[in-house]
Amino acid sequence: MSLVKNLEKILNEIPGHVRLCAVSKTKPVEMIQELYQAGQLDFGENKVQEMTDKSTLLPSDIHWHQIGTLQRNKVKYLASYVHLIHSIDSLKLLKEVQKEAEKNERTIDVLLQMHIAEEETKFGLDRSELENLLTSPELANMTHIRIRGLMGMATFTQNTAQIAREFGELKKRYDELQSHYPDSSNIQIDTLSMGMSGDYTIAIDQGSNLIRVGSAIFGERIYN
Ligand SMILES: *Cc1c(COP(=O)(O)O)cnc(C)c1O
Fold first, then answer.
1. How far apart are CA 17 and CA 82, in angstroms?
2. Which of 53, 82, 143, 187 has the highest CB neighbour number within 10 Å of its CB?
């Protein structure tokens, strides 16, 4: 199947309110270009260097999503162009994004990455860390970031009941966030990023409105 057919198959499957971020990490710019020409604007990468290199070679109206762990010393490289950072996991990192966004005279949209997997290996905030971040007095001074919602990854397992349970937990956190934090200048909760190639249908059933799909569009990734 062609890339564009893979894309269209997924777009036909998912409800209209769900956005699709095509995860293009390790894949060449030619492939991204092909999907862009078919109308796909949102692309996700997990390495800042790779995303920055690609962004300079591709059309400027592409929306670049940072989906991987982000080191503070890399924020300056993506601050001028990134569309959405999915992987904020500390107040320190958020402060750095604020600082670099201000330098670039723009507002950067971010998601807070939550630890939802029952397995230990996945990154993210737990419930009390989320609470601490959102109630930090420093947040009020962060006028160049906007918290748009949450992101999470389920355990890598064949157990669909477990995946559904983990995504369901994240949706619960998201709903609490929406009801406890009414829209302010830098908190506007409307995005729940969950679901990848293997589990996006479960994620959508559980309330996702942004899925991050790589291999189901681009084929398997080869790392070397
Ligand atoms: C690689 C990656 C994806 C996409 O994974 P696929 O299984 O190829 O769809 C989604 N989210 C994150 C955070 C990733 O690192």
1. 22
2. 82
